[in-house]
Design brief:
By secondary structure, this protein is mainly α. Helix 1 runs parallel beside helix 3, helix 1 runs antiparallel to helix 5 and helix 4 packs antiparallel against helix 5. The longest helix has 29 residues. The chain has one domain. The chain is built from 5 helices and no strands. It holds the Pfam family MamF_MmsF. It comes from Cytobacillus dafuensis (Bacillus dafuensis). It is a multi-pass membrane protein.
Length: 106
């Protein structure tokens, strides 16, 4: 098995064990263009999961400061959207990593 293919596959599969760190290290260290491409793509897809977190934090702080007794719809909806987005990105990364590992799209 080719080392570059394994590194590319592990860059995507790192969503399960190393998060953003592994694709970043692979991107900075490797010299192979395809491996660097897959590491960058995996890194960007894993960074997408961080996009909705400021909205969650803002809605939580707003709910605490205002001390409202009503249902915090902004907070609940932002948490649900964040969870769905994280699941979609994680499944996409796992599928992409398995495809590269099984030599379907390298």
């Amino acid at each position: 098995m080719e080392t570059n293919r394994v590194l590319s596959s592990l860059s995507y599969l790192s969503v399960l064990f190393a998060g953003i760190l592994f694709p970043l290290v692979v991107f900075l260290v490797t010299e192979d263009k395809k491996t660097k491409y897959h590491a960058k793509k995996a890194l960007l897809s894993q960074l997408i999961m961080l996009v909705p977190f400021p909205v969650v934090v803002y809605s939580a702080i707003t709910q605490i400061v205002m001390n409202q007794t009503e249902v915090p719809m902004l907070f609940i909806s932002s948490v649900i959207i964040t969870i769905l987005l994280c699941l979609i990105v994680a499944v996409w990364n796992i599928v992409k990593g398995i495809k590269i590992f099984t030599n379907e799209s390298y």
